[in-house]
Specification:
single chain; about 120 residues; mainly beta; Elongation Factor Tu (Ef-tu), domain 3; eight-stranded antiparallel sheet; 1 helix; about 5% helix; about 55% strand
């Protein structure tokens, strides 16, 4: 039996769908654990809050408002992967470089916010 684990990703920003090249990544981890070994060799850890991110490429279609995306704060970003997983960022802000590739017609994007898996 085969199982679909990869393929296109579908992006929504504040409920609006965007055309992507499918190569999105989500780092949804609000706490980062750092291992600590004491003098006796016992393993402990510390916790540090971490911002979650969603990044990838949007196609630069004629209706794509780049300035609206770059200026976005307090937005909701959702990416749905073909394997059924959905990453969600709340209170998201644009934190990428917004570089455009003339070769493949894409805009590089990244948002940071409070993440969860839906």
């Amino acid at each position: 039996m085969t199982t679909l684990i990869s393929g296109m990703a579908y992006l929504k920003i504040d409920g609006q769908n965007y055309s992507t090249d499918g190569a999105f990544e989500a780092t949804i981890q609000n706490i980062k654990n750092t291992p600590i070994v004491d003098e006796s060799g016992n393993l402990h850890y510390s916790e540090e809050k971490q911002v979650s991110t969603i990044s990838g490429n949007l196609y630069t279609t004629p209706d794509l408002d780049i300035q609206q995306i770059v200026d976005a704060t307090e937005t909701v970003v959702q990416i749905e992967f073909k394997n059924g997983k959905t990453a969600l960022l709340n209170q998201a802000m644009f934190t990428g470089d917004a570089s455009i590739s003339a070769t493949d017609g894409t805009l590089s994007v990244e948002w940071s916010g409070v993440g969860s898996w839906a």
